[in-house]
Amino acid sequence: MNRFNNITDVPGIKVGNAEDRHAFTGCTVVLAEEGAVCGADVRGSAPGTRETDLLNPLNLVDRVHAICLSGGSAYGLDAASGVMQYLEERGHGLHVGVGVVPIVPAAVLFDLSVGNPKVRPDKQMGYQAASRAERGRFPFGNVGAGCGATIGKAAGYQRAMKGGLGSASRHYSNGLIVGAIVAVNAMGEIRDPSTGQILAGARDDDGKIRSSLDWMAEQPLNPLSGGTNTTIGAVASNANLTKAQACKVASMAHDGLARTIYPVHTMYDGDTLFALATGGVNASVDLVGAASAEVMAEAVLAAVRSAEGIDGFPSYRDLFHN
């Protein structure tokens, strides 16, 4: 079996991206056409989401057909409607007697300050991303929901750097496969947990990255308005999980963000993660959750290292690989 080192290594999972590289916004679709058990965990205090209440274990529907990750702030939630249309045309969804209703939870990040704030992911872009979904390698960095993502805004946008989209996967000897995909648009800086090196963050006048906590300590109020950041993503596995167990995995996956983003889950972030399970392998929730945190951290690093600088927002590559 081919290994792509991304979330599509998980059986039943495909990924499609669409973006506007002039307006610097886009969306990413994680497709599970045959359905996947799904849970979610929202940790940031400024989220923009759709259908997350449905994923509560107390509620009826326990399988989703896609996850939509989008830029455009709350406007970008419209992209999920295009994903629904794509799935409905192919007969994928919850059967309701008179047809199907595709279940497409979504989360958005704020990128309106980066490109053209009047251009946002819409139904057409969501449909386009879904139609491109496939299993295999796909580009990271300035693609999909990561197209307009930025990092290190603790001192304002003028000192921020470019974020992006990243993915990773791991294979285990018992047949378990776990993958993650994430669009990194954090207020805080990104650190490599293996070395402690700051890869991207808020820059001082000399272009050197300083700790976000230092910036925050020097100013009584954050220079950003609420909801202007947010890291969104999903983990997936081929484990046999219930919806309650998937919610626990989504919760544990946030540890991957906490290991790489400083600070994370702030009042200015809407950090949201989904957890999908396509089934086939018996594995403990603890294993799946711990592995999900590991691959999520790897995906965050992949996003930052793959990002390309744009006007006003240099990238990790610009600072460390000139």
TrEMBL record:
SUPFAM superfamilies: DmpA/ArgJ-like (SSF56266). It comes from the Bacteria. The keyword Nuclease does not apply. Keywords: Aminopeptidase, Hydrolase, Protease. GO terms for molecular function: aminopeptidase activity. Pfam families: Peptidase_S58 (PF03576). Belongs to the peptidase S58 family. This is L-aminopeptidase/D-esterase. It comes from Lihuaxuella thermophila.
